[in-house]
Amino acid sequence: MAATLSPPQALARPRAILFDWDNTLVDSWPTIHDALNTALAAFGRAPWTLAETRRRVRRSMRDSFPALFGDDWRDAGEVFYRRYAEIHAVNLMPVPGAAAMLDAAAAAGLYLGVVSNKKGDFLRVEARQLGWDGYFGALVGALDAERDKPAPEPVRLALQGSGVTPGPAVWIAGDADIDLECAHNAGCTAVLIRAVAPGRGEFDAHPPAGHFGGCDALSKFVKNL
Fold first, then answer.
1. 193 φ/ψ angles, rounded to the nearest 5 degrees
2. Rounded to two decimals, what is the model's pTM?
3. Which of 164, 170, 94 is nearest to 132 (CA)?
4. Averaged pLDDT, 122-133
5. What is the set of domains in the chain, with CATH numbers?
């Protein structure tokens, strides 16, 4: 059975929104693809196409690299991070409408945070470079919590000190299945942000409560709260 989505206007007002980072707020695919293929090549693995990278990259390094690289996964991670550090600041590109959406959400008095599987140090550098760090009460990345997304620990850490506890009034908004899974694991409201609407049966395991076609659509919703 396909998931039934609420129209955006039917969603209850959130107290907090925790955003995914990569490809929800910033377009990171070219950088991730480059760094991943550098690591694959260094360890004799065949390179991935960009389409493969988009389809297969979901989980944090500590949850995904052991399956890719076996006992070499930590060394492969060092290669990945070294290449990523060389190029990520140069390639950093906000998703269209993201800045205006964050402005609108902040003006509405919502608590904002980020829960990402990007290494926390890189995440915070990128937020500062974009001048976005002031929007967020917390920017939680991979290795910051005991476990990474989709586990609920990063959500709890992102809300720490905010006065908001995990629950339906907390939206977890992202572009991928792992963001929706994280929301369900934490008992929060799962919101999908991407241009393409969910396919039939695509998210049956962890259905989103609502879908926005992009940052502009979510910005409009927030302005009408």
1. -120, 105
2. 0.83
3. 94
4. 94
5. 8-27+94-223 (3.40.50.1000), 29-91 (1.10.150)
